[in-house]
Write a structure and sequence with these properties.
It is a single chain. By secondary structure, this protein is of the alpha+beta class. It contains eleven helices and eight strands. It has a three-stranded antiparallel beta sheet, sandwiched between helices. It has a three-stranded mixed beta sheet with strand order 4-5-6. It has a two-stranded antiparallel ribbon with strand order 7-8. Strand 7 and strand 8 form a beta hairpin. The longest helix is centred in the N-terminal third of the chain and has 18 residues.
């Protein structure tokens, strides 16, 4: 048994070093049982991050750690709205929940932690402007900046019009060093059309001209 455990320890650590955070069910597909994971966690070779989630003890925990946890558990989730604004440093707010967008036909995810706030979409309103970012070895899908701003106006009754306007202003604010803004009016208008909020956003875009 000891040899098997040592062998599994190496393979488990290799997997975690490549993928960052891994579910117990994904280890099972590699022939590694929950009992073996528990023994490795008890010995300190790996760390149990949450129910059914494991990582390396020495792995760096970033401010986007909860996004990585959610995207490991809900693989089809797209981080959006308040959580996307925080990801891009476009808001002073710190949401207690992770805001995600799912296909309107997807099942409601059931997580004990982190808490989720779920929105539903389909077609281009779901798929347009989604970028992949590496967070602690996990692929995290996040709406890009102009899509995030358009989504904020689309869901203004949920997120608050003041937050949407702040996001628009911050996305167009020029960096004093580079002289560039995070996005352009043209890109925002493009995603506003996709999200069917172009007419709603137009007065705010004109006011910032």
């Amino acid at each position: 048994m000891r040899c098997v455990l040592e062998s599994n320890r190496i393979s488990v650590q290799e997997i975690l070093s490549q993928r960052g955070i891994v579910r117990a069910r994904d280890f099972a597909s590699q022939g590694i049982s929950r009992q073996q994971l528990k023994r490795l966690a008890d010995s300190g070779a790996i760390e149990r991050l949450g129910r059914g989630l494991y990582g390396l003890p020495q792995a760096e925990i970033t401010r986007n750690h909860t996004l990585a946890e959610v995207c490991v558990r809900v693989t089809h989730a797209v981080v959006c709205l308040s959580s996307a604004l925080q990801f891009y440093n476009l808001t002073t707010q710190s949401p207690a929940e992770v805001w995600i967008m799912l296909d309107k036909h997807a099942r409601v995810p059931k997580l004990e932690y982190p808490p989720l706030r779920t929105f539903w979409a389909s077609g281009e309103t779901l798929t347009a402007g989604v970028e992949e970012h590496n967070v602690e070895g996990v692929v995290v899908r996040v709406t890009n900046i102009p899509k995030t701003v358009a989504d904020c106006f689309r869901f203004r009754n949920k997120i608050g019009l003041d937050v949407a306007i702040e996001a628009l202003k911050e996305s167009l604010r020029r960096d004093p060093i580079s002289g560039r803004s995070a996005t352009t009016r043209e890109e925002i208008r493009r995603y506003a059309r996709i999200c069917h909020v172009e007419r709603i956003m137009q007065p705010y875009l004109e006011a910032l001209s």
